[in-house]
Design a protein that fits this description.
Length: 57
Amino acid sequence: MGIADKAKNAAEDLAGKAKEVVGDVTNNDELKAEGKKDQATSSVKDAGENVKDAFKK
C-alpha cells in the first residue's frame, strides 16, 4: 500500500468521524449516516490495499 493511499484513507476516515460527530451534535441523522458511510468506505479501501500488498510479497 502506498503512503499516499494510506494518507487518503486516513483522511477519509477522519472526515467521516468528524461528520458523524457534527451530525450527532446537531441531530442531523443524514450527516451522521454520511459520516459512517465515509468511514466504512475507508475501511473497505484499506482492506483492498492490504490484499494487494499480500499478493505483492
